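Dear colleague,

Thank you for sharing your sequence with our group. We've completed the structure prediction you requested, and as agreed, I am returning the results in plain text so they can be pasted directly into your records. Please verify that the sequence below matches your submission; if there's any discrepancy, let me know and we will rerun it promptly.
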Amino acid sequence: MIQQTALLFSLVTASIEMAACFICSWLMWRLQKETKDRSSRLLVMGAFICGLTALWVVTKNMLMFNHGTAAVNLLNPWMCIVYLSLHIVMTLYPISIVKQDWLTPRHFTYLFLPVLVLTVVFLFFTGAWTPLETPADIRMQLGKPDVLVRVISQCIMLPYSFILFVIPYNPHSSSASARWINIYSLLLLALSLMHLVNCFFGNRPLMIVFPLLATFFFLVSTQFEMEDRLNPGKETTTEKHGKASAERETSETQTAPAADDEALWQRICRAMDEEQAWKDPNISILTMSRRCTTNTTYLLRTIRGHTGGGGFKELLNSKRVAAIVSQIKENPDIDVQAAFYNAGYRSRTTAWRNFKEITGMSPAEYRQSLTKQ
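Please find the predicted structure tokens below.
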């Protein structure tokens, strides 16, 4: 009875995981078709594969539930390959965000090399697999080559989980904050550990929690893509707060007496034009004022005095958009997202919106306008 109840709960949670993964995959597929973003395609692939594996689990559990048995075939050899491939894909996704140019065909092959090798090795055991119905069977039969190879295929997931912790993070080439990358990495590591514990110890609570954690993992990743990276024109909550704060600062300086500090303006121009401070995705009015050895009040006064009323944000965005325009003119085939990041934007949403506000057209429309000239 306890086994049947556990099987029922596992069936429900696996169904939730399947539905969530297919929905996330569909939403991201629609969005990536508009944005042509390579990183999101990996997330689409990962969510879809996870949905298929959840469908397999649901089908298997339904058959067992209908026949009144809780017997299972653990470490199905070909599902081991699927799980490992899924884990690698979900590792590649944040790598493509942190290091856009790192995923060359050679590196891609290196990362999937264990899958290719294990597939060839598995072919030698076709038709002679040792049946494994309980975690105790795995531990007892570990000395058999076919069991050992299957166990190794799942343990390989752990080293992949730590790749994201050792890849150097560069805010200039990443469209995600270091905090988000760390959270993603920890969730991926937790999923790997849960999967291994389920295989070797068969913990019933974890069998129920694991699909729910996987569901949460893909929902969080999809929300991040749609809200912060790939949804053109949508203003995030964080950006709204930042915009409100900037407006308050500007309104406070408007009541102060005008000051035209030529020396300060020269320092601002040097920082913006020669040092290209606008390329720093973490730059703020506070860091800029410190860089120019002044305070935010005098910085805003000077900028408005020399730009006809525009504030720090307007100056910053004008420099960044000008850089994007220059990149598109020099190379019309350039990936727009790469141009955004090269110009200092971390969020595709913000870059797209600012570009359209300043130029009056979207990047795609601007690119088309160049071909007509």
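Summary note from our side: DSSP finds 18 helices and no strands in the chain.

Kind regards,
the structure core
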